[in-house]
Amino acid sequence: MKSLYFLLPTVEKATKAVQAIKSKGVSDDYIALVANDKHVLDKVHVQEPDILHNSDVIPALERGSLVGAGAGLLAGLAAVALAPEGLVIAGGAMLGLTLFGGGFGAWASSMIGVSVTKPEIEKFQQAIEKGELLLIVDVTIENESEIKSAVKTAINLVPNFEAAR
Predict the structure, then answer these.
(1) Where does the chain hold its CATH 3.30.1340 domain(s)?
(2) Among 80, 102, 130, 137, which one is least packed by beta carbons within 10 Å?
(3) Three-state SS for 104?
(4) Is the pTM of this model over 0.70?
(5) What digits encode the pLDDT tens for the residues 10-43?
């Protein structure tokens, strides 16, 4: 899945864009709208972005699990290298430390990622505060161009408009 971001100037244009997206078979679960006024969401009939749309939790989780697993693996290697002569540390200890490090890193970084606004949304924050609406649509690679075209057609797009990534 990939998220497309459309910055729209009015509620009317947002409504037209949402209708065009829904006509292409996209479920409400994959459409979200960011607005500075909560009442706008009721007019357009879409959901407010959830934690996955608003925050940096997924990328943080991915980074944390990789860094944590790497640190766990290094700790396992250090344990094998520094073990006293009579003590044999098997590969299970390295595997266990790697898994523990990955899990701990994923947990810790996701706790931080939840509180960080997604960079894609942050780019549009000033426009949203001024009253524009940010439409977020999760699409597959196969229907990406079809959705872009539907939105452009629905809102009588000016030539310089381009969906932000």
Answers:
(1) 2-54+120-154
(2) 130
(3) helix
(4) no
(5) 888 888 888 888 888 888 888 888 888 765 666 6
Amino acid at 69: A
Q: What is the CA radius of gyration of the chain?
A: 22
Q: Which residue, chain included where needed, has tokens 């990406």?
A: 144
Whole-angstrom distance, CA of residue 126 vs CA of residue 7: 11
Which of 115, 107, 118, 117 shows the shortest CA–CA distance to 67? Answer: 107
What is the rounded distance in angstroms from the CA atom of residue 45 to the CA atom of residue 77?
55
In the structure encoding, which two tokens stand for residue 102, read together? 């990955």
Tally Cβ neighbours within 10 Å of residue 22: 16
Q: What is the Cα–Cα distance from 42 to 57, expressed in whole angstroms?
A: 27
Q: CATH number of 2-54+120-154: 2.60.40, 3.30.1340, 2.60.290, 3.40.30?
A: 3.30.1340
